[in-house]
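Pilot study result, target chain (97 residues):
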Amino acid sequence: MTGSEGWLNDGLDMPCEDFGFWTPGVDYMAGWREARESADRLNRALLSVGFELSVVRTVASTNEDGQGVVRLAAWPGAVDRLAALLEARADGDGGAA
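Predicted structure:
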């Protein structure tokens, strides 16, 4: 993909190997709502440490069973920066989350 516009979306139309067809009777919205709350919380945390959501963000989705899934979508440089922040946190706190 080129450019930064449109490369991140809400996660519901992200094709991936493990995503199948929706099953009638499965409450996908409940799982998505739960994932959305978690994704929003992590997005706020990313913003609070200086990330732009145009380069790294989380998106809500569901799996084929309707369970909420939070996916991280990011440019490689942003992932490297996030990994460095997490590694520094782990080193400074004995690895505890």
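One observation from the pilot: Strands lie at 56-62, 68-74. A full batch analysis is planned for the follow-on phase.
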